[in-house]
Fold this sequence. Notes:
Elements: E1 2-6, H1 9-26, E2 31-34, H2 41-52, E3 62-65, E4 67-69, H3 80-87, E5 96-98, H4 107-120, E6 126-129, E7 151-154, H5 157-163, E8 176-179, H6 182-186, E9 190-195, H7 201-209, E10 227-232
Parallel strand pairs: 1-10, 2-3, 2-6, 3-5, 6-9, 9-10
Antiparallel strand pairs: 4-8, 7-8
Helix pairs in contact: 1-2
Residues 35-39, 66-67, 130-132, 136-139 line the site of fructose -6-phosphate.
Amino acid sequence: MVVHVFDTPAQVAQAAAAVIAAQVLQKPDSVLGLATGSTPMDTYRELISLHRGGVLDFSRVKSYNLDEYVGLPAGHPESYVSFMKRNLFDHINIGSYSLPDGSARDLQRECESYEQAIRDDGGIDLQLLGIGNNGHIGFNEPGKAFTYSTNLTTLAQSTIDANKRFFDSIDQVPRQALSMGIGTIMEARSILLLALGEAKAQAVYQMIRGPITPRVPASILRGHARVTVMLDKAAAARL
Ligand code: F6R
């Protein structure tokens, strides 16, 4: 695990965009794993500006997002597909993108076909991750065992609390999501995890310095051969 600490969130975004840009330049038909949330938003802005400047061509890139809420229609502004369109896909020439379908009638089958689609595309070259205040990655919440493949997950109360900022009231935050599993994430050929702000400092500390345990799902990343972690000073405060 390579850990970089930057002075500002803007520097994290620039460095993260540089890694993603290098991936796409070196392998124009890369399969990218993408994340939603506040953390990657500036990174996406950097990628959009590289694309607009004629530096990055995404036309052969395929992407798979980590997760999607269950119970929000795809057109809802806070669905993750809406988020991704607004913050990235509508502004670049992405070849194709996929998110799990949280409105699918058969959620179990949707999980299986999402997993299969990633495999059929040759697996993920670079997976971008944020980290939850509770150490989750994707929506793999702290628990007794690591999840393997894409699964239907129930959000932890701390995740519902953290995500209520995107909704008018806490009652509107979905309680369930479809998420890539820890196994899906660990199969990515390389991983880039970003964390910003003091609210992440404890989770970052546990990921890097604590025991490898399903109680801190991100801690498993220490068992992956190619993980880069980019932090701002606040997120690195406890290291
Ligand atoms: C998002 C995801 C989550 C977030 C995490 C951090 O697709 O899977 O694991 O990365 O909850 O969220 P933010 O960036 O909003 O702090």
